[in-house]
Amino acid sequence: MDVAFESFGPSRLMIGSDWPVCTLAASYTRAINLVENYLSQHATEVQEAILVKRAAVLEVRDATKARIAAHICNGKNKREGDAADASQRGCARSEK
Predict the structure, then answer these.
(1) pTM of the predicted model as reported, rounded to 2 decimal places
(2) Which residues contact 65 (CB under 8 A, 6 or more apart)?
(3) Measured between alpha carbons, how far is residue 32 from residues 11, 53, 59 in Å?
């Protein structure tokens, strides 16, 4: 974890897991505890950002992308570029 902090800095890190693979070496609880124990040496803001906030930001971005794709797939935009985008996303456009 030292290498990750030194290489990227705390502002570019977030919690991740290779579950269930990590359970080959230890329980999931033990794996998460290792991360939490390591992070305890850092400020509360850094801990919260790595463990919670960055994942929430990515979740919002993914939800936004999903809404945009659904909007295009539902044919709400009629421009030719949107039809091409919809077909690239693998959704069918219904022709009226």
Answers:
(1) 0.55
(2) none
(3) 19, 16, 20
